[in-house]
Write a structure and sequence with these properties.
single chain, mainly beta
Amino acid sequence: QTINIPLGSDTKLEADETLTLSMGSVSRSGITISDTGTVTIQNDDSAAVTIDNVSVAENVGGGTATVMLRLGNAVQGGFRLDVATSNGTATAGSDYTAISGQQVTFAGTAGETETVTVTLNNDAIAEGDEALTLGMSNLASTSLPVTISDNATVTITDDDQNEETQDISVT
């Protein structure tokens, strides 16, 4: 005989789950049957963290750029990851303060957001807009496959005047 068990559906990234079916002692005509079966419900959900790109003037917001990280689907038990900056056209030390291995913790709620602040170095050099990258690595506190491959571009818009000098001759 076939037994159909309706299963619920969700979007939460979680470990595979099991249930046990037990058939109690069934007797008929002197034959007794008792058996147990295990059913594994394989997780088919996924979750990813994305990072928003941001553009900020080098002297706005107290000299900081706030970058938002967003968890798409729920993750059972939550997790941690590290973030770090890397140079693009902006250079750590002169244009911004580097971040290396800063830990960010997610409780695991769908739509959850966390922020990372990059400190900008205001200068008086007219140099054009510059960019750096914020990336993620080192997924921890979970064995679930959370995708952390997204990167953000932080654009530092130059707010300095480029004053041109001209030679003037008087005769």
